[in-house]
Design brief:
CATH architecture of the largest domain: 2-Layer Sandwich
Largest sheet: 7 strands, antiparallel
Structural class: alpha+beta
CATH topology of the largest domain: Alpha-Beta Plaits
Strand content: 35-45%
Number of helices: 6
Helix content: 25-40%
Order of helices and strands: EEHHEEEEEHEEEEEHHEEHE
Shape: globular
């Protein structure tokens, strides 16, 4: 099943108060632009991001652990992305975006990407990203995320749950061979370890007096072996397109990541990257 990725840049036409999670606010607008078939086929929505002098800032809002609501001011530049999991091209959604207006937003531009093959990297590209022991470190900053395991909610950045979740999604959406995917997941799960966890559990108001517990914050993952580092990074890149975990339709499971460079090939000490 192909992935239809829309990256939208917009300007806030009128100020909008956010009394719930920004992803919920954005989901109500995005769903209104889709046909019923497009909504049913499934989608991943990023949370709302605003452009500032410091770059892109995710709008948390929504009484996150009791904090007050915020207002998205008129004139602000906003960015969000939507990935639809549809066999047919989502013409209705594209046409709706092309009208130039969506809720309080004036659409400035829309970038579209069609993906039907799992993206793959070369092992050689990672040679300078491991130390003398072929170990690499990946930093991931999670926005509200819920992982699941057989019906249980896993509220910490479990590398095993991330690996198996993303490979399962890749198998379902991009028709990977399930036997190869399962074999690769087992190898990766033994070679990726959570080496630092600075995440915290947060309670997020997702609207209509509903609250969801999730984890959020920075985590460091250690990966042994260049091929395992390559595969883990490829999975994380895929996850930036489809999200990870539960409630992806309202922007949960959104994260940013980078591979940290070792200070020296001979000294297995890691800096903060570039």
């Amino acid at each position: 099943m192909p992935l239809h990725v829309f990256r939208v840049s917009a300007v806030v036409r009128e100020s909008a108060p956010l009394v719930a999670w920004s992803g919920t606010f954005l989901a109500s607008i995005v769903k209104g632009l889709m046909s019923s078939d497009e909504v049913r086929c499934g989608f991943f929505l990023s949370p709302l991001q605003l452009v500032s002098g410091r770059g892109l800032e995710v709008v948390l809002s929504g009484l996150l652990n009791g904090s007050s609501h915020s207002v998205v001011e008129a004139g602000s530049r906003a960015v969000f992305s939507v990935t639809l999991f549809c066999k047919e091209f989502p013409f209705n959604f594209l046409n709706s975006l092309g009208n130039g207006s969506a809720g309080p937003f004036t659409i400035q531009s829309v970038d579209y990407e069609y993906i039907d093959v799992f993206p793959g990297s070369r092992s050689e590209d990672f040679v300078n990203l491991v130390d003398a022991y072929s170990r690499g470190v990946v930093e991931v900053f999670f926005y509200p995320t819920i992982l699941v395991f057989r019906g249980w909610r896993v509220l910490y950045p479990s590398p095993q749950r991330i690996v198996f979740n993303l490979l399962k999604q890749a198998t379902n959406l991009l028709n990977l061979d399930p036997r190869i995917a399962k074999r690769r997941a087992r190898v990766l799960s033994r070679n990726v370890e959570l080496i630092r966890d600075d995440t915290r559990i947060v309670a997020v108001n997702i609207g209509r007096r509903r609250t969801a517990k999730a984890f959020m914050g920075r985590a460091l993952f250690g990966v042994t072996g260049i091929e395992n580092l390559r595969d883990f990074v490829d999975l994380l890149r895929f996850g930036t397109i489809v999200g990870v975990g539960k409630s992806r339709g309202i922007g949960f499971g959104f994260y940013r990541f980078r591979v940290l460079k070792p200070r020296s090939r001979k000294e297995p000490v890691y800096g903060e990257g570039e």
